[in-house]
Write a structure and sequence with these properties.
Order of helices and strands: HHHEEEEHHHEHEEHEEHEE
Distance between the termini: 25 Å
Radius of gyration: 45 Å
CATH architecture of the largest domain: 2-Layer Sandwich
Helix content: 40-55%
Structural class: alpha+beta
Number of helices: 9
CATH topology of the largest domain: Heat Shock Protein 90
Shape: rod-shaped
Oligomer: single chain
Strand order of the largest sheet: 6-8-9-11-10
Strand content: 15-25%
Length: 433
């Protein structure tokens, strides 16, 4: 079972929402800063002079006069001296020194801004005097951008880092129970019944989701249990009338008709028995703690199959490879699975009818025939219920291998198919050690 990958993940959605909140906060903050600062004309003039002085720092004195005027201003003049200029203007900003001040005056040409700044120390001490006329609000753009950087961008950097750490650590940790539940749900198989997801302690929303999912599994198991019980009861009830019918058919004349009816009854009996076995396999409880020796199971099944093998004029060989062949499980169910593999080998193994049954090494059972093997294109279908290849159909119902796989799955095992190099098919039930 796999879950679709369409649509964004919950982690991405949460991250996107947090990023959107951050963008909205930045826009609101920038709007408030711009609205508040654009009305502070004296502060804008002060910052504008500071920015132009910073542009002049490090420029040789003889090249200062050749510097271009900033955008949006006119009447640009700049002078640099090594002696303090005489104070001719009063400071605009309270607490401003006489030699570091700004003047903003409305003139016919526009707003004239003049400023003096002291830069450097000791022998490199210099005084810069600026004067220019602001023609448009575009001249204040660098000052406004600086203010936005100081009051919007700079505070956002630590906030972005905090949100990134929060998203990577806290959000991921909160989503871990949901990821664990998805992983467990993805690993669920049709068998055995009773599989449930682990209910996390927190968060409550994920816990409620997992409990609801487990409740749905309870109802599905109950429905499947009722269906299996119904199938088993029907198959069991059919045995008696079929047995009575077989006695009646023995009296039918002529002989060719009697033989055809008897062959049909054999097929019906086989189908009913397989339906009963499949219903039992589907309703198997999880394996008990009692250990089952697979070697002993194989010897018992071979002994019970001896009359059928003799009737088919076949030969069976048992190979016990020893090792740890025990596992917790249902010996009767494992015997039914091995019996179906032997029966399958008898039907489709061809001549000379030689069958090898091997127990081990470890908890493994395998059955090999010496027939033509299995067409690779059929391997994906042989375990499907009621699947039968037309040209090899010998009256079977197509349930035997499904019974084998179901019983193996209930015991935590798998069934594999391979063709032997020297001919014949090998069916192997392998269980966890």
């Amino acid at each position: 079972m796999e879950f679709g990958n369409e649509g964004p993940t919950l982690f991405r959605q949460i991250t996107g929402r947090l990023a959107l909140i951050l963008v909205v906060f930045a826009l609101i903050d920038a709007t408030l800063v711009f609205w508040d600062y654009s009305g502070e004309t004296d502060g804008l003039a002060e910052d504008l002079v500071d920015l132009q002085v910073a542009r002049l720092v490090g420029t040789p004195v003889d090249e200062v006069s050749r510097l271009s005027a900033p955008s949006g201003v006119d009447g640009w003049t700049v002078a640099v001296s090594t002696t303090p200029p005489r104070p001719t203007i009063e400071p605009v900003v309270a607490g401003e020194s006489l030699l570091s001040r700004t003047e903003r005056v409305q003139t016919a040409q526009g707003i004239r801004i003049s400023g003096i700044r002291n830069i450097g120390e000791g022998a490199s001490n210099r005084w810069i005097r600026l004067s220019f006329v602001v023609k448009s609000w575009g001249a204040y753009a660098p000052a406004i951008a600086k203010e936005l950087g100081d009051h919007v961008v700079s505070p956002l950097i630590p906030l972005i880092l905090i949100m990134a750490i929060f998203t990577v650590t806290v959000v991921r940790r909160l989503l871990m129970p949901l990821r664990r539940a998805v992983k467990e749900a993805d690993s669920l198989e049709a068998t055995p019944a009773g599989q449930r997801l682990t209910v996390p302690a927190a968060p409550r929303e994920v816990s409620a989701l997992v409990q609801g999912f487990n409740g749905a599994l309870d109802r599905i198991d109950a429905a499947i249990g009722k269906l299996n019980n119904f199938t088993a009861q029907v198959a069991h009830e059919l045995r008696t009338p079929i047995a009575i019918l077989r006695l009646a058919v023995d009296e039918v004349e002529p002989a060719p008709l009697r033989q055809r009816l008897q062959a049909d009854l054999v097929g019906m009996t086989r189908l009913v028995n397989q339906m009963l076995d499949l219903a039992k396999a589907d309703s198997l409880a999880p394996p008990a703690l009692s250990l089952v020796d697979l070697g002993a199971v194989a010897r018992d099944v071979i002994a019970r199959s001896a009359p059928l093998i003799h009737e088919r004029r076949a030969e069976i060989r048992f190979h016990d490879l020893q090792g740890n062949q025990s596992l917790p499980g249902d010996a009767a169910a494992l015997g039914r699975a091995l019996g179906n593999l032997i029966d399958n080998a008898l039907k489709y193994g061809g001549k000379p009818g030689l069958i090898d049954v091997t127990a081990g090494p470890g908890p493994t059972l395998s059955v090999r025939d010496h027939g033509p093997g299995i067409d690779p294109s059929d391997i994906d279908h042989v375990f499907d219920r009621f699947w039968r290849k037309a040209h090899t159909d010998e009256g079977g119902a197509g349930l035997g291998l499904e019974i084998v796989r179901t019983i193996a799955n209930h015991h935590g095992g798998v069934v594999t198919i391979a063709n032997a190099p020297d001919g014949g098919a090998i069916f192997t039930m392998k269980f966890a050690a």
